[in-house]
Amino acid sequence: MHDLMIHNASLPDGRTGIDIAVRGGRIADIGHQLGGKSVRTFDVDGWLVSPPFVDPHFHIDATLSRGRPRENLSGTLLEGITIWGELVPTLTHDDVKDRARRLCYWSAAKGCLAIRSHVDVSDPRLVAVEALLELRREISSWFDLQLVAFPQNGYYRQPGAIENLERALDMGVEVVGGIPHFERTMDDGTRSVRALCELAERRGLLVDMHCDETDDPMSRHIETLAYETTRLGLNGRVSGSHLTSMHSMDNYYVSKLLPLIREAELFAIANPLINITIQGRHDTYPKRRGLTRIREMLAEGIPVALGHDCVMDPWYALGSHDMLEVAKMAVHVGHMTGVDDMQAMYESVTTTAAAAMRLEGYGLEPGCHADLVVLQASNPIEAMRIQATRLQVLRRGEIIASSRPAESRLCIGGAEVSVDFTERNRPADADQS
Ligand code: FE2
Predict the structure, then answer these.
(1) Could you tell me which residues come within 8 angstroms of residue 374 by beta carbon, excluding any fewer than 6 positions away?
(2) In percent, how much of the chain has pLDDT > 90?
(3) Stretch 195-207: mean pLDDT, rounded?
(4) Contact 366, 35 (CB under 8 A)
(5) How far is ligand 1, taken at its centre, from the CA of residue 170, in Å?
(6) Looking at the DSSP assignment, which residues form a beta bridge with residue 390?
(7) Closest-CA residue to 122 (of 100, 152, 89)
(8) How far apart are CA 345 and CA 376, in angstroms?
(9) Is residue 358's pLDDT more than 60?
(10) Is the pLDDT of residue 394 over 90?
(11) Count of beta carbons in the 10 Å neighbourhood of residue 349
């Protein structure tokens, strides 16, 4: 006897008419016309059923703080860092926790059930670390929150950062962060990558560094990150986030760099919403697009995940934590409007992001957690096109969020017309996906 049977699902890989059987919070079986009794059943009417969205790069300690203590008038990275520096000493345990919890509600409602968040350890009080570790425990039944110890003001550049970061790891933060391009010199950046990778190796932790988030083509800390990963045998456990300097690098150098990244089995994590607005600010025209080389890395066999990075914080006043918005921005900024490229960007906010976070039991195979999102779309491309309504979000086989289907009604010339912007809504002779 199954606990739940979902009928008539379309899957992200293109299969249609699929049943999904759930037992004990996990997928028991998935395929056409499954038999067996079930306590509950529901028919999803051919809509897309996807594993949940995953955000592998976020700053949940800063989220929803927009306007405190003041607005970012220039919209620049540097003004954002200054504002954040003013806000940090005033943070309280409850404030951090309340904002982060609210963001997780928003995220879950949008079908995202896992976030890897960097948490700033530059404040010696470590108020945010404590608050987020507590929140992580409290929400673990419905949300996976993974934390990165992030020395926002530099590992060597800020006095005390080394000790703060170690204390955060002692408290239970499970990923080692870094920001080599923000250290005082290139050499300090290189040393910080080495020291932080060695720290992760000693403690058996993952690594995720803000790496080369700059327009300077000579910012090449990703090369060191790949080297140290290979040297220390950390393959598959290290992510390089942002990597925007690669956008501006010489093509010949990149042709040498990409095989080194692949050899180290690094994950690249791009943040298109933020980098399209933050990068290229010193350019006149033409202005650089502020995105790493996603297509080229995918072609090289390097897994590329996408992160949201910010929602309503000192750096970015926009956002609702919708990973479909992230994927859609990557499609646009990265010239990735080919069908296979768009499909790859959907994977970047689902399966690839889950792999970067090493989430256990993620996916649509038998044995995986029954964590599922039903979207008002027929396929991943349509989901991105209309940022489809998340009709139901399931965690361990239970519905934890639901939304009414999007529908607008027009009354024109006495006749009523309904539109929902989906492919089903096209006139019959054009209805071919
Ligand atoms: Fe970031």
Answers:
(1) 9, 44, 47, 48, 49, 390, 391, 392, 393, 394
(2) 96
(3) 98
(4) no
(5) 22
(6) 375
(7) 152
(8) 19
(9) yes
(10) yes
(11) 31
Burial label, 291 (beta-carbon count in 10 A; 0-12, 13-18, 19+) = buried
Please give the pLDDT value at position 240: 98
273, 308 Cβ separation under 8 angstroms = yes
- Positive or negative CA dihedral for 328, 329, 330, 332? positive
The pLDDT value given to residue 432: 52
Distance 300 CA to ligand 1 centre (A): 24
Ligand 1 centroid–CA 266 distance in Å is 17
C-alpha dist (Å) from residue 428 to 299, 409, 423, 433: 37, 19, 10, 12
Confirm if 211 and 241 have CB atoms less than 8 A apart: yes
Query: What pLDDT sits at residue 430?
Result: 55
213 annotated active-site: yes
> Following DSSP, what letter does each residue of 233-277 receive, concatenated?
T-TTSEEEEE-THHHHS-HHHHHHHHHHHHHTTPEEEE-HHHHHH
| 3-state class (DSSP) for residue 118 | strand
Q: What is each CA distance from 163 to 8, 107, 159, in whole angstroms?
A: 54, 32, 9
Per-residue pLDDT, averaged over 111-122, amounts to 98
pTM: 0.97
Return the half-sphere exposure (C-beta side, CA atoms, 13 A cut-off) of residue 197: 28
Beta bridge pairs of residue 139: none
What count of Cα atoms within 13 Å lies in the side-chain half-sphere of residue 212?
Answer: 29
Indicate the angle between helix axes 127-139 and 93-109, nearest 10 degrees: 40
pLDDT of the residue at 35: 85
Tokens of 331: 């499609």
Rounded distance between C-alpha atoms, residue 204 and residue 184, angstroms: 28
**Contact 354/323 with Cβ under 8 angstroms?**
no
Specify whether the CB–CB gap between 237 and 226 falls below 8 A.
no
Mean pLDDT within 159-178: 98
Q: How far is the CA of 102 from the centre of ligand 1 (A)?
A: 19
Residue 72: Cβ within 10 Å count: 21
* Given the residues 201, 213, 223, 228, the one annotated as active site: 213
**How many beta carbons lie within 10 A of that of residue 379, not counting itself?**
24
